[in-house]
Structure formats: structure tokens, C-alpha cells
Design brief:
Elements: E1 2-8, H1 12-23, E2 28-31, E3 48-49, H2 60-79, E4 83-84, E5 88-92, H3 95-108, E6 114-117, H4 118-124, E7 134-138, E8 142-144, H5 146-159, E9 163-165, E10 170-176, E11 179-184, E12 187-196, H6 202-209, E13 217-226, E14 235-237, E15 248-251, E16 257-260, E17 264-266, H7 275-288, E18 297-307, E19 313-316, E20 323-327, H8 333-348, E21 372-374, E22 379-380, H9 381-388, H10 397-404, H11 417-428
Parallel strand pairs: 1-2, 1-12, 2-9, 5-14, 12-20
Antiparallel strand pairs: 3-8, 4-8, 5-7, 6-7, 10-11, 11-12, 13-16, 13-17, 13-18, 15-16, 19-20, 21-22
The structure holds flavin-adenine dinucleotide.
């Protein structure tokens, strides 16, 4: 069979485009080189659906962020992915800078922006230090689980006829009579058009298709995750700087608190967390808030922003018009994903037909959920098995965690990881030692010990 489209990269951008193409009734295959979707930037970010006041007016970032914010709520509802429109504030004492942000937001089409102070600011951010007097309030900002969003977009695509191939390593590509032949994993896939949404792997994929490459830069952002609390009820940003939106405090859609990210330019893709990064977060957060519950710290992680200039690149290749190039999708890429997908599919690929009605995904929760495996997040055996046997199966410990939150709680899998490994091994009919944490090389257990 010759697919209409192949989408390369299973982050939130690739999965949103894959979903949209399936909605248009196109035959489409999504290729991801890792054993699960959403293992790149999409798994390690703030999970914010930004309002859209931050991006330079007239940029693709501004256009896609504001439209993406509008589209996300309904899409999340259809996909059964939790989304909360909790709002955001940018706090500071430089009233002129806050007003400039408000004006830029209004120019970008963001609704409901206002400058707040006094009692209103106190009620929005009760733990804010008293010497911080003003804030720009953006009620349209929201929270989503970025990895669940991407997984659900792909899963709905698969339920409705799309094909998703994980752990797919492309070896080489040929183009014959207008059809791409993609060789990898001992098979050949044929497709008429290609979307390169491989994030940090963009240039590698571009080389295979002989299309444009861009100078890609990496900027690491480290975070602290706190156990669930109501320390902040909405996202609290500082005033932005040249390095980005700054260190924020935000609830996640699941009720945890995220502190971060830092912004550090690095030479190569490297998701380590560092003492220096974590100290920076603690020192900034302590200077902005009272009552910071740092004793609830349960994890640190980092994510890598991938950029190739100030704005996103979303365009047809000049070297091969059958390839769409999507590069440098740093923040607000998550917020923009549905709008980027809409633009790519309708404007660049000219698929103008009505979206077809989609068969809804079921999700993994069920009643009764069976024996509780993850006590912190109260996740039952049957829910974990539903994730392992889903249309896009969760075959690793972290893939299970992203879908049902088993291992996301206070003990971070200390109590339940072995039981989860056993369920994966049993359901996939593999040896316990073959179960991986995340990537193909991340063994957890070894036959005969070390
Ligand atoms: C610290 C941080 C905070 C952020 N906060 C926010 C936020 O709050 N709100 C917001 O809107 N945005 C935020 N962003 C930006 C957002 O996370 C990204 O824009 C978005 O996740 C990019 O998605 P993507 O699909 O382009 O890339 P990725 O998620 O990186 O996906 C690319 C995929 O391609 C795969 N791949 C690579 N090479 C190949 C290959 N050869 N073959 C097959 N597959 C391949 C990778 O494995 C990966 O799964 C943040 C980013 C960071 C790093």
C-alpha cells in the first residue's frame, strides 16, 4: 500500500498532524524511533497552554499560540484528556513592562487580559511576597498533560485507521516516480508526502530526504516537582527576559506543583539535572513566594528546548515540495500544536475536506480497577493492563506511567515498579529482564544480577 502521508516524530507536533490527517480521511503512518510517543521535549515541559501574550506580534509563534489555545479545550474534551483553564499571571513591579505585555497580548488577539494589584492579586496568588505589587492576569491560559495529549492524539488516529510504528529506525530513503520508499526495521514503507516533525532529530531526518537543514540550538530547562498541594492555584511567571519566560510556579493538571524551568544554553542534547540549576530555582522561588513547600519535593527533571532562530519553521521544502519541514518548535509549541496541525494540513497540504466523525478513544480507567498497584496515585491493575493492551501499547515502565500515572506519586515508583514490570512482562509475554524503563537500552533487571 502507498500511504498518502508519513509523519516522522511522535511528539505533540507529529501526533497532532497525524490526527488531523486521519480526520481528513487520509491514509497516514506515524514513525517514532523510541519505544513510546512523547519521549522528547513533549514529555518534559511546563504543561501550559499559554494565553499568547509573550510571542512577538506577527510571528508564527503568536499566531499559532492564540489559535492553539482556542482549539485545545474542545480537542482535549474529545480525546478525554484533562485540561483546566486556570489562568496565569506575570508578576512584577515594573508596571510599564507589564502594560507593554498586555498591549502585545491584545495585538496578538488574547482576550481578557488585565493588570491587577491589591486584593485581587492577593486572592489570585495568596503566597506571593508582599513587596510584589502588580501582575498581568491572563484568564485564558490553561494546563494540560503534554504527554497524554500527544498519546491521545495518536491513539485516536490509530483507532480511526492511521498506523503508528514505534521503535522505527529509518535506515535510508529513496524516491521513485513521486513515491518515497522508506527502509527501516526490515520493511519498506511507501508514501507520497512526508512531514518532518522529528524535533531534535530534524536535521538527521532532513539528511535522509535531502531537504534543508537548520542550525539547531539546545537550551536546557530544569524543574523541581512537588507533591500535590494548593501552593499556587494558577501559573505565576516573572517578567520575561531575553532567555525566555523565566522560572515559574504552576500547578499541573494533575495537582502537583512545578517549579522551573531554568534556561541554560548547552552544546549537545543532555537532560541531566544539576545542583546549580536546582539552586537557581530554589533561590528565585524563595525570593518571590512565602510558604514554599520545598519539603514536598518528589523529583527533578529537565527538558531541552530546540530552536533554529527566533520563530518556528513551518514550511514546504524548497528542495523537495513533497516534504513539509517543521523545525525549531520550542515554547509555545505545546500550546500551538493543534494550530500548527491545522495550518500544515489545510494551508500547506491543501486538504480542505470536512473533518470526518471520529470513533472516540476509551481511555484506560475502569470500574472496578482491580488490585491497587500504585498506592500513591491509586492506580489499579486493570487500568495498567488497559494501557499495556491499548491501541498504541504501553510497553515500558515510563509508557505506563505517562498513561495512568502509576509511579508518578510521592514514592516515584519505589513501591510499585516491580509489580508494573511483572504486569508488562505477563501481558506482553516477555521475560521480566526484558522490560525497559524508557529507551531500548534502559534495562531495569539483569539475569543473574550485575
Ligand atoms: C523546558 C521546556 C518547557 C516548555 N514549556 C512549554 C509550555 O509550558 N507550553 C508550551 O506550549 N510549550 C512548552 N515547551 C515547548 C514544547 O515542549 C515543545 O514545543 C514541543 O513539545 C515540541 O514538540 P515536538 O513534537 O516538535 O518535539 P518532540 O516532543 O521532541 O518530538 C520529536 C520526536 O521525534 C522523534 N524522532 C527524532 N528523530 C527521529 C527519527 N529519525 N525517526 C523517528 N522519530 C524521530 C523523537 O524521538 C521525538 O519523539 C517547553 C519546552 C521545554 C523544553
Amino acid at each position: 500500500m502507498i500511504f498518502d502521508y508519513v509523519v516522522i516524530g511522535g511528539g505533540v507536533i507529529g501526533t497532532a498532524i497525524f490526527n488531523k490527517l486521519v480526520r481528513k480521511g487520509k491514509t497516514c503512518v506515524l514513525l517514532e524511533r523510541e519505544p513510546d510517543l512523547a519521549t522528547g521535549a513533549t514529555k518534559a515541559n511546563s504543561g501550559l497552554i499559554h494565553a499568547g501574550f509573550d510571542a512577538e506580534s506577527g510571528s508564527l509563534k503568536a499566531k499559532f499560540n492564540v489559535r492553539g489555545n482556542e482549539l485545545t479545550e474542545n480537542l482535549a474534551k474529545e480525546l478525554k484528556v484533562p485540561f483546566k483553564r486556570t489562568g496565569a499571571v506575570v508578576v512584577g513591579n515594573d508596571l510599564e513592562k507589564l502594560k507593554a505585555l498586555l498591549e502585545r497580548g491584545e495585538k496578538n488577539g488574547v482576550r481578557g487580559l488585565e493588570i491587577v494589584e491589591g486584593d485581587k492579586l492577593k486572592s489570585l496568588v495568596p503566597n506571593l511576597k508582599e513587596d510584589i505589587k502588580y501582575a498581568l492576569y491572563a484568564p485564558s491560559a490553561g494546563l494540560i498533560s503534554p504527554y497524554m495529549f500527544a498519546i491521545a492524539l495518536a491513539e485516536e488516529g490509530v483507532i480511526n485507521g492511521g498506523v503508528c510504528k514505534l521503535s522505527f529506525e529509518i535506515d535510508r530513503v529513496e524516491q521513485k516516480d513521486g513515491v518515497f520508499e522508506i527502509f527501516g526495521n526490515n520493511e519498506v514503507l511507501q508514501a507520497r508526502k512526508v512531514i518532518n516533525s522529528a524535533g531534535a532529530g530534524f536535521n538527521e531526518v532532513s539528511k535522509l530526504f535531502k531537504t534543508e537543514e537548520f542550525p539547531i540550538k539546545f537550551r536546557r530547562g530544569e524543574y523541581i516537582v512537588l507533591d500535590k498541594s494548593d501552593f499556587v492555584k494558577l501559573t505565576v511567571f516573572p517578567l520575561p527576559t531575553a532567555l525566555g519566560k523565566g522560572i515559574l510556579a504552576t500547578p499541573t493538571v494533575d495537582g502537583n506543583i512545578l517549579l522551573g524551568p531554568t534556561a541554560e544554553d548547552i552544546e549537545a542534547f543532555n537532560t541531566e539535572t544539576t545542583e546549580c540549576g536546582i539552586d537557581k530555582i530554589i533561590s528565585y522561588i524563595n525570593s518571590t513566594f512565602n510558604n514554599v513547600p520545598l519539603n514536598k519535593n518528589i523529583r527533578q527533571f529537565s527538558g531541552i528546548r530546540v530552536s533554529c532562530g527566533e520563530d518556528f519553521v513551518v514550511t514546504e521544502s524548497k528542495l523537495n515540495p513533497n516534504v513539509i519541514l517543521i523545525a525549531g518548535i520550542n515554547s509555545p509549541g505545546l500550546s500551538s500544536a493543534p494550530a500548527i496541525a491545522e495550518y500544515v494540513v489545510e494551508e500547506l497540504l491543501k486538504e480542505h475536506s470536512e473533518d470526518k466523525p471520529m470513533i472516540a478513544r476509551k481511555g484506560y480507567t475502569c470500574e472496578p480497577a482491580g488490585k491497587i498497584i500504585c498506592k500513591c496515585e491509586k492506580v489499579g491493575e486493570k487500568e495498567i493492563e488497559n494501557a499495556i493492551n491499548a491501541p498504541i501499547p504501553a510497553t515500558t515502565v515510563d509508557a505506563v506511567k505517562r498513561r495512568v500515572r502509576a509511579g508518578m506519586g510521592r514514592c516515584q515508583g519505589g513501591q510499585c515498579m516491580l509489580d508494573i514490570c511483572k504486569l508488562i512482562a505477563k501481558n506482553l509475554n516477555i521475560e521480566l529482564e526484558e522490560v525497559k524503563k524508557e529507551s531500548a537500552k534502559s534495562n531495569i533487571m539483569f539475569k543473574g544480577g550485575f
